[in-house]
Amino acid sequence: MFEVRLPQTSEDDLESVIVFWHKSEGDTVNEGDVLVEVQTEKAVFEIEAEESGVLYEIRVPRGEVAGVGQVLATIAPSASTPIEKIDQQEKVESTEQSSESSQFVKVSPRIRRLARDLGVDLAIVKGTGRNGHITEEDLHQAVKQESRPDFKSVPIVGVRKTIAKRMSESLVSTAQLTETAWADVTLLAEERSHRIDKVSWNDLLLFAVAKSLKQNPNINAHVFEEEIRQYEKVHLGVAVDTEDGLYVPVIKNADELSLLQLRDRVRELVEKVSQHRITPEELSGGTFTVTNLGSFGIQFFTPILNLPEAAILGVGKIETDLTLKNGQITERKRLPLSLTFDHRAIDGAPAAKFIQTLIGYLEEPARLLDEVLAK
Question: Which domains does the chain have, with CATH numbers?
Fold first, then answer.
């Protein structure tokens, strides 16, 4: 019997969630066939069959988490292995397991997995099969008859489990503080509408952040227990929200890119995330992260550090404000900024200096867009 085990795809990924089985128990498989898709905290991978035969047993069903080296399935050495023999073996295994507990219901592993997926308690299901065995139809009927609670149970698995773990570790292991400020982007809005309308507000902001980090290397840093690493190159993480959870692809050497190059790279990475084609390399190595909730109508908020980064910038919604200037009421556009930083490595004044640098670029388009506007 050949065992299909979960491989280790990177040093950091020690477990994966089973996304989809391309084969079912009893199916014939050939060497090289894709058996299953698994998702680490960084990307989705396919596992191929290393032997030909018949898929004998799936031990880790879709939606469950497996650790590196864990057996996901077994393949019988020959595709000629009768399915009846497989079912009989499942029944024998089920009978052996039933002796472990008086509450254990005698069913095949296949029926047990289906019951678990449907949320059905086998102990309350009356079997209508031969000798009172529980059938698949019995389980589906139990689902229809069972009164459901007025809530939906969502397991914490996959990307959501990774996010939960990382955010908890971030808050426990660091001294996080958030400073907020408004940036007047009235002039930048005018330039964008007249001369650079092919870039988004987020592109402009990321461009300004890269320039600001270059002038404030103490913010462009990683923090460890005994060391602070300040980086010359800016590897900018961009938080991307998906149905599966939050991904943070990294724009490497963002400080060396022009505005249009930065825009194109952001679009490329976001598309890869949406199509599940993003690689672990493209999700690692960030020195600073930007997360933008402006499209959701949020103003100020408290982003959580993306370890081991020393700081993260939260961006809110641009809004119109009426301001009294030189005795006249004027209409201005302003952008809310929230900088969370690790107080173990960065004090309040240097963090404020970074925000001032960033605001300076956003409020003076000539400084930010000198190359673009000169064309």
Answer: 2-145 (2.40.50.100), 158-373 (3.30.559.10)
